[in-house]
Write a structure and sequence with these properties.
By secondary structure, the chain is mainly alpha-helical. It has two domains: 1-38, no CATH class; 46-187, no CATH class. The chain contains seven helices and no strands. α3 packs antiparallel against α7 (167-187), α4 (78-88) crosses α5 (102-127) and α5 (102-127) crosses α7 (167-187). The radius of gyration is 25 Å and the shape is elongated.
Length: 192
């Protein structure tokens, strides 16, 4: 049914004609249904969350390990021991020994991956309803906020993180958030 735009209909006939329109809204199912939902919030995509968590988590861990070794002269695996102590407790894990303990490293990787997935899911839930172009700076701010939460908020429970405060942790967390947001929105391209 064609719409004659010269007739100023305002009654039921015009509403019926509008409902039977065959444009993109009709194909999506938005027109013609009395209970068409308004903008619905979308959940983050699991694949994008996992990919972003793995990429950002690996880069974060590598940055921390290299910078701690090169700048501070501590063992390369020192950050792994600090992370593993979250799950294993401080005794026997800190300070890091002279040699890498593979069991402690495995626990650290597991704890770090779980935290990265949790953080990616939170950031993904925020980003899914925003423009893709804002993902990088929202991720950057998210990473900076994580630094303060981890190194100032959680130190009541995990006091050994207080000694790791500084620019290395700050920059690593900022890069983590930046990558988390960018990779997530690079994969999940849905726009609201």
């Amino acid at each position: 049914m064609a719409v004659n735009r010269t007739i100023p209909w305002a009654g039921a006939e015009r509403r019926l004609e509008q409902r039977s329109w065959h444009g993109p809204e009709r194909r999506r199912g938005d027109v013609g249904s009395a209970a068409a939902p308004a903008a619905t919030s979308m959940l983050p995509r699991a694949g994008a969350v996992i990919a972003a968590a793995v990429v950002a988590g690996v880069v974060f861990a590598a940055m921390e390990m290299v910078l701690v070794a090169v700048v501070q002269g501590k063992p390369f695996w020192a950050p792994l021991h600090m992370i593993a102590a979250i799950g294993l407790g401080r005794e026997g894990v800190l300070p890091p020994p002279a040699a890498l303990d593979t069991g402690v490293a495995a626990v650290a990787v597991g704890v770090h991956l779980v935290l990265s997935l949790l953080y990616a899911a939170v950031l993904g839930a925020v980003l899914v309803n925003l423009r893709r172009s804002s993902a990088w700076w929202i991720g950057l701010l998210f990473g900076i906020a994580l630094y303060y939460v981890n190194f100032y908020g959680f130190t009541a429970q995990f006091p050994w993180f207080a000694e790791a405060r500084g620019w290395i942790g700050f920059v690593s967390h900022a890069v983590f958030g930046l990558l988390l947001g960018t990779v997530y929105r690079g994969i999940d391209k849905r726009e609201r």
